[in-house]
Fold this sequence. Notes:
The complex is a heterotrimer of chains A (156), B (784) and C (264). Chain A is built from 5 helices and 5 strands, in the order ββαβββαααα. Chain A is an alpha+beta fold.
Amino acid sequence: MSITVNLIVNGKAVTQTCPENTTLVELIREKLQLSGTHVGCDTSQCGACTVHMNGRAVKACTVLVAQAEGSDVTTIEGIGTADDLHPMQSAFKECHGLQCGFCTPGMIMAAIDLVNRENELDEQTIREGLEGNFCRCTGYHNIVEAVGNAAARMKE
Amino acid sequence: MVQQSIGERVLRKEDLRFITGKGNYTDDINLPGQAYACFVRSPVAHASINSLDISAAAGADGVIAVLTGQQVAEDNLGSLPCGWMVHSKDGSEMKQPFHPVLATDKINYVGEPVAVVVAETYLAAKNASELVEVDYEEIEAVVDISSAQSAADIYPEVPGNTVYQWELGEKADTEKAISQAAHVTRISLTNNRLIPNAIEPRAAIADYNTGTQDLTLYTTSQNPGLARLILTAFVQIAPEHKLRIIAPDVGGGFGSKIFVYSEETALAWASMKLGIPIKWTAERSESFLADAHGRDHVTEVELAMDDEGHFLGLHVKTIANMGAYLSTFASAVPTYLYGTLLAGQYKTPNIYVEVDAVVTNTAPVDAYRGAGRPEAAYLLERIVEIAAREMNLDPVEIRRRNFIQPADFPYQTPVALEYDSGDYEASLNKALEMADYAGFAERKEEAASRGNKRGIGFSCYIEACGLAPSQVAGSLGAGVGLWESGEVRVNPTGTVTVLTGSHSHGQGHETTFAQLVASKFGISVDDVEVVHGDTGKLDFGMGTYGSRSLAVGGSALSKAADKVIAKGKKIAAHMLESDVENIDFEDGEFKVRESNQSKTFQEIAFAAYVPHDYPLEELEPGLSEKAFYDPENFTFPAGAHICEVEIDPDTGVVDIVKFTAVDDFGTIINPMIVEGQVHGGIAQGIGQALLEQCVYDETGQLLTGSYMDYCMPRADDLPNFDVGMTCTPCTHNPVGAKGCGEAGAIGSPPAVINAITDALGVMEIEMPATSERVWRAMQQAGGA
Amino acid sequence: MYDFNYHKPQTVKDALSLFKEADDGIYLAGGHTLIPAMKVRLRAPTDVIDLSGVDGLIGIREESGALVIGALTTHDTVATSEVVARAIPALNSLAASIGDAQVRNRGTIGGSVANNDPAADYPAGVLALGATIKTDRREISASEFFTAMFETALEEDELIQSISFPIVESAAYIKFPNPASRYATVGVFISRHGGQVSVAITGAAATVFRCPEMEQALSDNFAEVALDSIQLNADDMNSDMHASAEYRAHLCVVMAKRAVASMS
């Protein structure tokens, strides 16, 4: 069986028909060819698939497309461009907050949500706030620094 | 133009694509008309296959084909090989079971692939995979490594389940030293089994063109050149020149993407058989079952000392788990990457190590970040710490008393290696200062006032990197050479394209190598592009593992760049009407010595490709040079790690409150990248010490088969790291680099465990030191 | 995931009739237990009935001495709710300890309670506070609701609409998370009202349970020392590779003491 869904992805209206057992991340990667959102696990833990849905970070591997009907979705491709990076993107580069880059889009999307929802961020709250995202390369040290750095810029 | 030289913190060239979602990982690639593969995997660890019925699956919706091990056998594909022959004490060759691409009549571990379903969609392939009916007749599984040698044989060709019984060092001298010593410290320890868990799961697309008969394999590989050699020369998938392997952006490897596995091999074979492109991306649960695991040793150690704590002899006896089959490098890990490191940073005159490698009904075990060296450093730094406590010596002092001194280099150890350079005390002193060891007693007291137990632990590790002098490796059983290729192509406008056989999957080669070459030529890093990961573009190369890329791959590029400069000098000499001996190259200019005449690097490049004023009778046009660099020796990064923990006495929870690492990696090109490598390595080492543990039950079922049960270090499990450097350059490679990728994972586990045992006032605790183990240790010590 | 039919009813009545018509229907709230289970093919419903379109299932309000939380209210909403903070702040911290930020943005109280995972956090709060589970057809007291591991008093098609928590003088939830999954290895919820103390423990056994020994001791003397002599019977506890029964029994007391300390 198939279902037709209407949603906004990175500011553009999207209408797609897909099987009902399609997840949001499958829609994003396979139908919309936005390959910046990744899949790193099958138990909703690694966070590589994190996108924003109606302004909040969600794991797109654990949302059915039908649940995303009518929602406003933003992926890594929707937050900044090469010429006009989001402060979180800039901070990850400047602080060397990424190595292989695979967890990075999900990490950046989760971090933006963290900064948006928390007023005061120190090292510990950043570490706790990134609980839903695994990185195997960086040891998180520079990610934590990047998020703190970006938070200051985002609140300016 | 910004010139950036060696030693500067140049931001990474590769980052822009990753932070904007424009990376190109294997699963991001889709080919027109591609089909999808799903593997049927064994749910049992040890069984005979009585029958295999694919008829229902083959007839299911969307299914193109169901291929089995029988068909693989009919096509005469070879065994997936282990590339390193290790000989036993008695001179016999290691016993290597046949490792089929797909199982035929026997299952040897849970998750072993039995068949592959190829269908129009992944969902169709997966649905149909459940319709493949396999009748397994179970056999009792061999899981426990300590008893594997007395269990029933898994393979007739591996009697006693023993692959080899290897030794290194002087047995009689070591036994004599131990029997006559004033003090002998003895411990038994386990090096816990780990699952690598690169965040990008393995993936591949095989694309066979029936017209050209070319096979292209896009895959998550750390070493596409080596993978091509194995798939063609050993497994005999296709002729070598007809197979192109592309490893695009790869999301972490840590060793697990070195090896040639069943799945990628089956995919390549299936694409040739069916004439269509086929894609497979592992689900994480498949990664847990079927990626090569790491570590898994049980070891007994004796360290003999005189009455002042000088080391006299070290005897190590290890059983190493190979899993069900010998993976690509598996045999070398607990031998040449382990036994050879047992001198550590110390002048122990007598060392003898025995290693029995065993097969079990578990996933294959192979190199994982550090590969053999973490196991060596762990046992050595644990027994040194315990020896200090038994001798009532400060753990720092016992190390100082035994360090190889700067004047001793080159230093020949009793276990084959010759260290070229180092200053171990310098790293330790710097670490002690950064960690404020002097203030530790006060901090311990303050923690006690809050009811917490505080401890400090040290680790002075060494590793051998820069694999490897090919002739040495060959004499020890390596099936391949371990040089690296590099090519420096100067383009007519003076920009540079660099091609390397090394492969970056997070290490930042696109920046480090660009920095290396840019500094050679006095040009901007932005004018250098690094190409890697495609056998269609590159010379044969050996890839990235064992912290070898800069020391070996970088040295190849350095030599190729030197050739470019040498040729440039000839061109400049012609254009400037001087002798080549009078031409100097510095800061991007070819200059006639003691004159103001010069040509820029760009002018020379242009002249080489537009050879109007050019010595064509003596010199070919063009400015592109290659080098193959075969190292003279291993490199020996070393350092000192200090861990400080606080333990909650009520729960046993360990909090790492301070972690200091001072490392000597020789010459550093980009300190930002090097520090990042150290951070990541420490995180994996802390993961091993505190959190990570691969567990099979007695029937061979994997209990830690998902992130619900396998504990990955998260941001809030780890502290910030204080990282410092010392430098004694490598004496035998042109870069002076020693390698930095694995050090963190090697040095940190013993530092963590030493800190915990110090806090608890106990001698031993097993890794991972979970809160329950710590709590139990406190119960036993009566100190809760 | 296997194939299924997706439905999004607008009313409880429609949801119930869709469930009845289905061969093997299941309600979908936040989906953060159901969807992972479906992805790894442990669950294979024929019909998924998404409740997110049903009016009145989301929201938090104070009502005649009780805090009422709609079944589809997310963990994040509860964690950050000022109404909750005024009424039962322990529920803020309980909700904030569930999963991770992304999970809390989707997962719901109703889904968690209906699932009754032995290591879930909410059941401890529901049981200790003596909450009432309001369904489409009745009210079920917490003491009768959690019947066994992954089992509740709900009838097959019965739908939780809201959960009503009596507002108590003080309460606290302290959790010892499983380091891998971050579910509760042990989670202890203590509430105190009018001299009555109730203690509910999750994670430690097959299902959430009240701890009469601790309740008695704390009713006599609401202080950490009152728990010094408590030793829970490890025979009743879960034992797995993450924590033995003996360790869990020990942690129950430690977590309870910490909860008491945070309330004092």
